[in-house]
UniProtKB/TrEMBL annotation:
Keyword vocabulary terms for this entry: Hydrolase, Protease, Serine protease
Keyword DNA damage listed: no
Family: Belongs to the peptidase S8 family.
Peptidase S8/S53 domain ranges (all copies): 764-990
Name recorded for this polypeptide: Peptidase S8/S53 domain-containing protein
Taxonomic path: Eukaryota, Fungi, Dikarya, Ascomycota, Pezizomycotina
Residues at the catalytic site: 772 (charge relay system), 809 (charge relay system), 975 (charge relay system)
Lineage top rank: taxon: Eukaryota
InterPro entries from the UniProt entry: Ankyrin_rpt-contain_sf (IPR036770), Peptidase_S8/S53_dom (IPR000209), Peptidase_S8/S53_dom_sf (IPR036852), Peptidase_S8_Asp-AS (IPR023827), Peptidase_S8_subtilisin-like (IPR050131), Peptidase_S8_subtilisin-rel (IPR015500)
The keyword Hydrolase is annotated on this UniProt entry: yes
One example of a Gene Ontology biological process annotation: proteolysis
An MF annotation (GO) of this entry: serine-type endopeptidase activity
Length: 1063
């Protein structure tokens, strides 16, 4: 923040401007020529080419400058040049050979290819000629050449060396000349800076890459669109380039002198710090110009923040090889000539200071864009969810004692999560829960703390939005909540503990930007939230949402109390934030005054040393000029300091008055006196200017961000809502299956698993893709079995993730698969639209009234799920569902068919469920059953092996148990049969994996779909009389009752070979 005079780039380590300095850096003081009358015409010029005319003109300008006396000022010189060469410049402004290549292009070309540097007299001539030509015809600035589509400013920047100042001075002089002498000059300058060349780079891209000192000036002149312009090479915006890997590398100077660094090290460090400040000012200017740049993504789907994070490397000792920083130090003669360190070991070392400051600024700016979704755009790529990176964590509701920190091994996240949505509210559970049971309450809290511990172990540092549904009857303690929140940087907090203490929020989430509070109608709580020790101390709080119940007070009184709370909080926030800004201004002012004093003391010390007649008098004059400059700056600074102190005093008085006003209004029922107009979201800080605060630019580049927007919203007597996503009660848990008869097939399977599989620790695993409505991974018998899931939710998603089952169906299927093959790795793909259109578990019922969009989305979603399962290299895919083909979803069905065919080509075994609609099902074209012969349709059978009454046996390939199965509730039917088919096939594969551990070919032999089909067909033949039609019944007891794994292998080998030979 500019709080008064500050050290310029020439101080404190460089001399103050002198007459010689002005002559060599003439653009510092004179940027634009005045208007003139052009009465004098140059001598006639013979007909020559435009290039020759320009060369002659340049030579004449050089001669004119060299003949000018030393007493001639730059302004007078420009007047003479314009008057003398007006007609010549007019004659060669535009080229005959290339109409778009102006004299400004030609000057830039000459500087570049003749390698004219600042010390060359030609450089001064080129700069003056460019400035004068621009003042004559500003439109030339915005014209592009035909070859590279570059404006003159593009070409000039391409001439500049890194961190060079001379080219920048020419560019600024041209822009200011255009603006001064033409009503449309500013528009031409803005267009020239904003236009993109053939690589779609504008001048901001180029200036940032060259680290030009005029970058901030160009940003000011450019259009807002220029800040989000995308380069065709890498897709970067100027902000990407400013924060990316190729920007200025900040280093620190380490001096061997003690206790005070030597003069040379001080000078080098001061220059590095000025460069660091320039980089930050450029970044701030870009974001202020167009905050949308924070949300832009490059070709690698990286926002500026993500690119910066990716480009950061750990600081490690290294030789000072950074091109930019070394160039800056080596070129400055004022530094080279200072001090002599002798044998002292002085060196530059890498530093993360600039990286950390840039990251803090990008992070804090993201939350000033408007809301949660806008912030998500900054922290996550548009395709993050497609890369398998989790950004949303929403586990089973409510959490229970079964939850542990190793229950979600598949959860793959970075250091930032978009949403964490948790619940320990017993009303979220299925059925009736004993909400006041002490053991259940304690178990839920333990589970909650384990979840936060798990996130810590996964290195989560920041949670954009945290929502916790507490047990409102016995909520968590303040200490418990603080311990959960403190390790994370949380920006949107919604923990529904009634009357949550403001101190808890302040201590645990000091940077919170959005806060949800739940009031019980106690006016004292509202007062504490609005008071001087309450929410006003959250400097980055931008919104408060209060959900309140009417307590002992009447509705009208409570309504008034809530209204007063919002007004009081707003007033408190305004005063506290203005005080903070003033305090920051005072701190910066003290730092600047300290620099001035150090500069002054340094100059006095040198003046005392320069007493010998051997010392040149020029040194004495230089140090005397420095001393006078520092003393003048200190005098101005003291005046600013007085204003700052007065402003702080006035704001403190206002803060006290606001507090007293709250106290005087008994019960918060009396309305405040000043109600002329409703407050806006913006906090007006214009009054701070009278106290010395001129700009927030520098302040905002610090860690002490102060939000300048705030709003408070309230709802009264509204019921507390859930997490924002629908949770369906799982009716299967209410089903009483105690009357189920013993099932021979199932008992045979369980016996074999118990004797030969369950206790095995030989490490073999079978990969099964389960496409259903999700799986409740928190259940103990599924622990560690789910290895991955799909889809990965978008950062702003409110959907229930794959590790929660929408209706419990997928969980039951997972359990059946795991029952048949305990050593299974489940890859769960969740179909969001499954429960709206899928035909399953409703024997005899046709679904004809599904929304057409749902039919389409289901087919497309199923195709994507198959593709994902293929990418996971699963051995089996189990699909316990089917849906109807329609004309609306035909295109997506073709895609589904293609994906299933690709899976079959990759030797993935595919099972799907029959529709369980009896003979009525034959009227419909069902998928995935009709997607090809490679998809095997499984139907439900009774305990005796006969097809269930609701199954059309003519439409199925196999019959597996689907009725009278304990532990699956009312999930009977072909869904269960399909899961058992997949589980049994997995068991057969597992037996081969174990038995042929050292023989890969033998292990892979049974994984072919045609061989598994031969096995199942052979088992059907054994279950029927010779020459009788196959029953479809796959009797597992025939193979499992054989004995151990070796005997199972022999049986499989025999039946498969028999089936192959019979075909």
């Amino acid at each position: 923040m500019a709080t008064g005079a500050q050290p310029t780039d020439e101080g404190p380590s460089a001399p103050l401007p002198t007459s010689d300095f002005v002559n060599s850096h003439f653009f510092d003081e004179y940027f634009a020529p005045p208007s003139f009358n052009h009465d004098v015409s140059p001598k006639a010029v013979p007909e020559i080419t435009t290039a020759q005319r320009r060369e002659d003109l340049f030579d004449h300008v050089m001669n004119k400058i060299s003949s000018a006396g030393t007493s001639t000022t730059i302004e007078r010189l420009k007047q003479d040049l314009l008057k003398t060469f007006f007609d010549q410049i007019t004659a060669c402004k535009y080229g005959v050979e290339d109409e778009e290549r102006t004299i400004l292009h030609w000057i830039a070309h000459k500087i570049k290819f003749e390698r004219i540097r600042e010390s060359d007299p030609k450089f001064k001539a080129a700069g003056l000629l460019a400035e004068i030509a621009t003042s004559m015809d500003p439109k030339m600035l915005s014209l592009r050449d035909t070859e590279k589509k570059s404006t003159p400013i593009h070409m000039l920047i391409s001439c500049a060396k890194s961190s060079e100042t001379g080219i920048g001075e020419i560019i600024l002089a041209m822009c200011r000349a255009a603006e001064k002498d033409s009503p449309e000059g500013k528009k031409y300058a803005s267009e020239a800076i904003s236009m993109q060349n053939k690589d779609n780079e504008n001048c901001l891209h180029m200036a940032i890459k060259k680290e030009l000192s005029i970058t901030k000036d160009l940003i000011t002149l450019a259009s807002a669109q220029a800040v989000v312009a995308v380069c065709s090479i890498d897709g970067n915006t100027p902000l990407h380039d400013a924060v990316g890997p190729n920007r200025f590398a900040y280093r620190k100077q380490v001096c061997g002198a003690n206790p005070r660094p030597c003069e040379k090290c001080q000078a080098i460090q001061a220059q590095m710090d000025r460069s660091k400040g320039r980089v930050m000012k450029d970044i701030v200017a870009l974001i202020v110009k167009n905050p949308k740049a924070l949300r832009s993504k490059n070709k690698e789907d990286l926002s500026p923040y993500l690119l910066h994070k990716q480009s950061r490397e750990p600081v490690r000792p290294a030789a000072p090889t950074n091109k930019s920083s070394l160039t800056l130090m080596d070129k400055d003669d004022s530094i080279r000539g200072l001090g002599d360190t002798g044998k002292q070991k002085c060196k530059t070392v890498p530093s993360n200071d600039l990286d950390e400051e840039i990251e803090r600024y990008l992070v804090e700016s993201a939350f000033d864009l408007g809301g949660f979704e806008e912030a998500c755009d900054c922290f996550f790529g548009d395709k993050t969810h497609l890369k398998g990176k989790d950004s949303v964590f929403r586990p089973e509701r409510p959490l229970s004692g079964l939850d542990s920190d190793n229950m979600y091994p598949f959860f793959n996240c970075g250091t930032t999560l978009a949403q964490v949505d948790l619940s320990i509210d017993p009303t979220d559970s299925k059925g009736s829960a004993a909400s006041n049971d002490t053991i259940q309450v304690e178990d839920a809290r333990i589970a909650l703390s384990r979840i936060f511990e798990m996130l810590k172990k996964k290195n989560v540092k920041r949670i954009l939005k945290l929502k916790v549904r507490d047990n409102t009857k016995t909520p968590c303690s303040d200490d418990f909540i603080e311990n959960c929140l403190r390790p994370f940087d949380i920006r949107y907090l919604d923990w529904n503990k009634p009357d949550l203490c403001a101190d808890v929020v302040i201590r645990s989430t000091p940077r919170v930007t959005g806060l949800w509070l739940y009031a019980t109608g106690n006016n004292a709580v509202l007062r504490s939230w609005a008071g001087s020790n309450g929410l006003s101390n959250l400097l980055q709080l931008r919104s408060v949402h209060v959900q309140s119940k009417v307590g002992l007070e009447s509705y009208s009184n409570h309504l008034a109390a809530v209204g007063a709370f919002k007004r009081d909080l707003r007033a408190s926030i305004e005063v506290v934030r203005k005080l903070k800004i003033m305090a920051m201004g005072q701190m910066q002012h003290q730092t600047i005054m300290g620099q001035y004093k150090s500069y002054s003391d340094n100059a006095r010390q040198h003046l005392q040393e320069v007493q010998s007649p051997l010392e040149p008098s020029q040194d004495k004059q230089l140090w005397q000029a420095r001393l006078e400059w520092a003393e003048a700056a200190m005098a101005k600074g003291e005046a600013i300091g007085t204003k700052l102190t007065a402003g702080v005093t006035m704001l403190l008085q206002r803060k006290e008055a606001n507090l007293q006003d709250i106290i005087n209004r008994l019960g918060l029922q009396q309305q405040p006196q000043d109600q002329k107009k409703a407050p806006t979201d913006e906090i007006d800080i214009s009054e701070l200017q009278q106290w010395g605060i001129q700009s927030l630019g520098v302040l905002e580049s610090t860690t002490n961000f102060v939000a300048l927007r705030f709003r408070a919203e309230s709802k009264i007597d509204q019921p507390v809502t859930g997490s924002g996503h629908k949770l369906t009660k799982k009716s299967s848990d209410k089903y009483d299956d105690s009357s189920c008869k013993p099932h021979q097939w199932v008992e045979s399977l369980e016996r074999f698993v118990s004797d030969h599989v369950q206790r095995s620790d030989r490490g073999a695993r079978v990969k099964v893709g389960l496409i259903d409505d999700g799986v409740d991974v928190h259940l103990g018998d599924l622990k560690d079995k789910v290895k991955a899931g799909w889809p990965t939710e978008k950062p702003t998603s409110s959907r229930v993730p794959f590790y929660q089952s929408a209706e419990g169906h997928g969980t039951t299927m997972a359990r059946l698969i795991a029952t048949a093959c305990p050593h299974v790795d489940l890859y769960v793909a969740k179909l969001e639209s499954l429960n709206r259109v899928i035909l399953r578990d409703e024997p005899g019922k046709l679904i004809d009234n599904a929304n057409r969009k749902d039919w389409i989305s289901t087919a497309d979603e199923a195709a994507s799920a198959i593709k994902w399962a293929r990418e996971q290299k699963v051995d089996i895919i189990s699909m316990s569902w089917s849906f109807i083909a329609t004309t609306q979803n035909q295109a997506h069905l073709e895609r589904l068919t293609q994906e299933l065919q690709s899976a079959a080509n990759e030797h993935i075994i595919l099972y799907c469920a029959a529709a369980d609609q009896g003979m009525y099902g034959s009227r419909k074209s069902l998928y995935p059953a009709n997607a090809g012969a490679n998809i095997k349709v499984v139907g439900s059978a009774t305990e005796t092996g006969h097809s269930s009454s609701f199954v059309n046996q003519g439409l199925v390939d196999y019959l597996f148990p689907g009725e009278e199965i304990k532990g699956i509730g009312n999930r009977k039917g072909s869904s269960a049969a399909t899961a058992l088919a997949a589980g049994f096939a997995a068991l057969v594969i597992w037996c081969h994996e174990v038995h042929f551990k050292s023989n890969p070919e033998k292990r892979a032999w049974i994984k072919k779909a045609e061989r598994m089909d031969s096995l199942f067909q052979g088992m059907q033949n054994l279950a029927t009389k010779p020459d009788a039609p196959q029953s479809g019944w796959v009797d597992a007891s025939l193979v499992l009752d054989e004995g151990d794994i070796k005997q199972v292998i022999d049986f499989v080998d025999r039946e498969v070979k028999r089936g192959v030979s019979s075909k």
